[in-house]
Amino acid sequence: MADHITNNRGEKPLDSAPAAEARKRAASPFLTGSELARRWQMSVRTLEGWRSPPRKVPFIKVSGRVLYRLTDIERLEVASETHPSQW
After folding, report:
1. What are 62's strand-pairing partners?
2. Can you tell me the distance from the alpha carbon of 87 to that of 44, in angstroms, rounded to the nearest whole number?
3. pLDDT the model gives residue 27
4. Local structure of 77: helix, strand or coil
5. In degrees rounded to 5, what are phi and psi of residue 51?
């Protein structure tokens, strides 16, 4: 977003929420539970259940906050892919 763009009062426009969130996510190697739930199109509660066996979605806990390492999630997604030849 260009820093020189202003509205008619000379104020810089606020970032849109999706754009600001996308920049934040791009800068962080972690996803929150709500970000991962949105990515996988499921509820946060379902995702919480998937942290336990048999699915065991990998996560870390920092100061009581659950985070998902993006590289772990991407690795899990690739490993979970199915192809027509496997049907």
Report:
1. 65
2. 30
3. 74
4. helix
5. -75, -15
- Which residue in this structure is represented by tokens 């379902």? 46
* Rounded mean pLDDT for each run of 10 residues along the chain, 87 residues in total: 58 61 72 97 96 92 96 94 79
Question: What number of H helices and E strands is found in the chain?
Answer: 4, 3
DSSP 3-state of 15:
coil
Distance of CA 4 to the CA centre of its chain: 30
Both tokens of residue 10? 């000379």
Q: Report strand pairing: 30-32 vs 65-69.
A: antiparallel
Provide the residue count of the chain. 87
pTM score of the predicted model: 0.65
What token pair was written down for 20?
């600001």
29: preceding bond cis by omega (within 30 degrees): no
